[in-house]
Each structure stands twice: as C-alpha cells, then as structure tokens.
Specification:
The chain is an alpha+beta fold and 291 residues long. It folds into two domains: 3-12 and 206-290, Helicase, Ruva Protein, domain 3 (Orthogonal Bundle); 21-198, no CATH class. The chain is 59% helix and 12% strand. The chain has seven helices and four strands. It has helices spanning 3-63, 78-90, 114-124, 158-161, 169-175, 199-250, 266-290; strands at 97-102, 132-138, 141-151, 188-197. A four-stranded antiparallel beta sheet has the order 1-4-3-2. It is rod-shaped and about 135 Å long. The two termini are 44 Å apart.
C-alpha cells in the first residue's frame, strides 16, 4: 500500500467521521431551531387571541351595554371575537388554527374533539404546567399545538353559563337551553388551542442542512485535491526519485544525478543526507578497487 493511498484513506476516514458528527449536530440544531420558530409563531397567535379577548371585554362590551336586557350579541363574547378574528387569518393561512375547545360549549362549533378533550382533561386533573404543547399529525402534515386552560375565574361569566333562566333570552333562543350551562366558578371548562404547521419550518431546516452538508463536501473535495497535489509534488515524487536512485546506486551505477539541496524541510534534509551517502559510498568503492 503506497504512501498516497494510506494518506488518502486516513483523510477519508477523518472526513467521514467529521461529516457524521457535524451532520448529526447541525441537523439537530436546525430541527430545534425550526421547532422554536413554530413555538414562537404559536405563542404569537395565542397572545393575539388573548389581546382580542381583552379588547372585546374592555372596549367593545361597554359600548354595547345599551343593548336591551333581553338582547344578545355574539360579537360581545370574547371567545367569539377571538375565534372570528383568527378565522379571518385562516383564509390566507389555512393550516394555522385557533380554537377555544370546550367540553360543554354554548356554540356547537367550539365542541372539543377527541384529542382536544384529552388536553382539557389533563388540565382538569392537575397538569402542573399552565401550558401544554406537542405535535400531532393532520391531513396536511405535522402540526405543533400550544394549549392553555380556560378557567372560569370571573363570576360575571356565570350570568350566561349557570342556568338557562339566568342567561339572556336571545342567547338561549340562538343556541338552545341544552348546552353551555352548569358551569362553576374556578372550573376548567375548555382550552385555548393554537395549531401551527411544522412542514414549512422543517423543509427550511432540511434545505439549510442540505446546503451545509453540500458546502462541507465541496470544501473537503477542494482540500482533498489540494493536499494530494502538495503531497505528490513535495513528498511522493521526491521520495520516488530517491527510491529509484537508491536502486541504481545499490547496483554500482553512480551516474544518477544528485538531488537538489535547496530548502529546509525534511525532504530537503533527506536529499542532502542521500547525496552524502552516495558520495561516501562511491569513494569507498573507489578505494576498494585501488587495493
């Protein structure tokens, strides 16, 4: 096995190990960054929904207090306002969703589906976190969700959700007397859930990973070729010439030219040593022949 082949095998082995380690590390980092980006997007949607709810409570509802006592406007309900506003966002971004999923909702569209019910029950059964997050599969791909509990902390909410008799008649007429009642103070009745698609950030992460690995391979190829050229010119070729010259000298042929002694590197010192050895051997043979 030649010196060049040994060198290339070692270099290739080091590159493969480095590529695997750096590839795994960079992919995990890019994937975590993609997930963090999705979590930030979900958090932004959640805070937007909370801002809309707060705006409805503090500014819209007081302006509509002049509504007749038996009147009811869904637009004054914070959950309705937040859901309607973010549903407008879904016209352009259909994979993004915001729901105020409830076990016993007034509006049937807020009825929790199976996986949402599981989240609500986790909150009810004492989930230590004020927020739950995770990933789930959807028809359009993987999505990350962020959920926060809906807790009846304001006694004013029970005006509409305690009994049908205490609720505004128009609300009962609109949604019926069978749902959205029997709530209790400090009870967790549902969860605010934001779902954000994972596909686009993951695709961007994979594209960045592919670009990084491609750049790394390209750099390795350039370094590999450069080192091979330098190895060939500075080490392999001079040593090969010395090997051929040593073969000739060993058979008594001293017609081979001496090596250049310019330079201070190891190959130049080896050339000077070979020249001295050649001259010494030639003189020794001449002395032997004279005797």
């Amino acid at each position: 096995m030649g010196l060049r082949l040994k060198f290339n095998l070692v270099l290739l082995g080091v590159f493969v190990v480095g590529l695997v380690v750096s590839g795994y590390t960079s992919y995990e980092l890019l994937r975590r960054n993609a997930e963090d980006e999705v979590v930030r997007s979900a958090g932004l949607m959640m805070e937007t929904a909370l801002a809309i709810r707060g705006y409805t409570i503090s500014q819209v509802r007081p302006l509509l207090e002049a509504t007749p006592a038996d009147g009811f406007l869904p637009q004054t309900v914070p959950a309705f306002a937040a859901t309607e506003t973010l549903n407008t966002l879904r016209v352009k971004y259909p994979d993004y969703s915001y729901r105020e999923a409830t076990l016993n909702p007034t509006n049937p569209r807020n009825t929790a589906v199976e996986w949402e019910t599981d989240l609500i029950l986790k909150f009810r059964h004492g989930a230590s976190a004020a927020e739950l997050s995770g990933q789930r599969l959807t028809p359009t791909g993987s999505a990350l969700y962020v959920a926060r509990p809906i807790k009846i902390s304001n006694p004013a909410c029970l005006t509409c959700h305690s009994t049908p008799e205490a609720a505004p008649p128009l609300m009962v007429k609109t949604y019926g007397p069978l749902h959205g009642f029997g709530w209790h103070l400090n009870e967790i009745v549902g969860a605010q859930i934001v779902s954000v698609p994972m596909d686009l950030p993951i695709r961007n992460a994979r594209r960045a990973f592919t670009t990084f690995i491609g750049s790394l391979v390209a750099v390795f190829v350039v370094v590999f070729l450069t080192l091979n050229v330098m190895l060939s010119r500075m080490i392999v070729r001079p040593i090969a010439r010395m090997s051929r010259a040593a073969d000739q000298v060993s058979t008594g042929d001293f017609k081979v030219a001496e090596f250049s002694e310019r330079g201070r590197d190891e190959v130049a010192r080896l050339g000077r040593a070979f020249n001295r050895m050649r001259r010494s051997l030639e003189k020794a043979l001449q002395l032997i022949e004279r005797r």
